[in-house]
């Protein structure tokens, strides 16, 4: 058999071995979910890839889809309605959507299903306010990355708790951990030096000591009564229903 035939057989054999891997890779790529719909062309392909990967990673952790939509118009619809229609078509379960309309210079963030409870209007306002300066400065990739990161973080904090509390700041948690460790070390060092056995009875001879006199003086008792506050005026903000989908939302201009 000639060397040419041997090389041809080896090449065919290699293709047969690699074919299943090529098919699996093609299927996996086609099955990958799309999270960024950049109709306004605000991002590069590389930036879209990074945002897709981040949304996929954090979305799997929170069991929530994080979508980004950019558009040059909403076909005459209100931006909230446009976002709701997108969810009805592409959403499934817990979902957060950031929509930017470059034509009207509007930005809208919404949470659906589980995300509606965790990303309430207050938290969404905080996220939108955080990214507004980057959007205005046309730093869209940074703004979108921050939106995904903060949304994922808030999805891990119990609803009704302010995520901006100092308790959730990493630097405060670091200081607290160092302080607790320092106290623990101090207690161990203190106990390692032996115990002090001197107390109030050390220098008292109970056989020769006695109570000379005792008396109690009652001055007065004061009782203050306050009216109990009523809870009837307190209330919580709810979600919005539009186009068949209930959601929490935050909108603004840039």
Automatic annotation (TrEMBL):
<feature type="domain" description="TPM">
    <location>
        <begin position="36"/>
        <end position="149"/>
    </location>
</feature>
<keyword id="KW-1133">Transmembrane helix</keyword>
<keyword id="KW-0472">Membrane</keyword>
<feature type="compositionally biased region" description="Low complexity">
    <location>
        <begin position="243"/>
        <end position="254"/>
    </location>
</feature>
<feature type="signal peptide">
    <location>
        <begin position="1"/>
        <end position="29"/>
    </location>
</feature>
<dbReference type="Pfam" id="PF04536">
    <property type="entry name" value="TPM_phosphatase"/>
</dbReference>
<feature type="transmembrane region" description="Helical">
    <location>
        <begin position="170"/>
        <end position="190"/>
    </location>
</feature>
<feature type="compositionally biased region" description="Basic and acidic residues">
    <location>
        <begin position="225"/>
        <end position="235"/>
    </location>
</feature>
<dbReference type="InterPro" id="IPR007621">
    <property type="entry name" value="TPM_dom"/>
</dbReference>
<protein>
    <recommendedName>
        <fullName>TPM domain-containing protein</fullName>
    </recommendedName>
</protein>
<keyword id="KW-0732">Signal</keyword>
<keyword id="KW-0812">Transmembrane</keyword>
<feature type="region of interest" description="Disordered">
    <location>
        <begin position="225"/>
        <end position="254"/>
    </location>
</feature>
């Amino acid at each position: 058999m000639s060397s040419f035939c041997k090389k041809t057989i080896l090449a065919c054999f290699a293709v047969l071995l690699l074919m299943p891997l090529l098919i699996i890779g093609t299927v996996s790529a086609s099955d990958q979910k799309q999270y960024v719909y950049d109709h306004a062309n605000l991002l590069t392909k590389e930036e879209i890839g990074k945002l897709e990967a981040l949304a996929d990673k954090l979305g799997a952790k929170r069991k929530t889809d994080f979508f980004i939509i950019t558009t040059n118009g909403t076909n005459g619809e209100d931006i909230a309605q446009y976002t709701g229609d997108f969810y009805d078509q592409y959403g499934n379960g817990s979902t957060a959507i950031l929509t930017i309309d470059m034509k009207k210079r509007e930005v809208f963030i919404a949470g659906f299903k589980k995300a509606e409870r965790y990303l309430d209007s207050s938290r969404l306002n905080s996220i939108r306010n955080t990214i507004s300066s980057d959007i205005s400065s046309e730093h869209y990739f940074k703004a979108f990355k921050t939106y995904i990161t903060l949304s994922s973080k808030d999805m891990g904090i119990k609803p009704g708790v302010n995520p901006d509390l100092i308790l959730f700041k990493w630097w405060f948690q670091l200081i607290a951990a160092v302080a607790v460790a320092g106290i623990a070390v101090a207690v161990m060092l203190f106990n390692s030096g032996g115990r002090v056995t001197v107390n109030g009875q050390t220098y008292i001879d109970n056989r020769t000591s006695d109570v000379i006199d005792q008396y109690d003086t009652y001055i007065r008792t004061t009782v203050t009564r306050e009216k109990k506050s009523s809870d009837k005026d307190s209330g919580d903000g709810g979600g919005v229903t539009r186009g068949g989908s209930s959601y929490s939302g935050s909108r603004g201009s840039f």
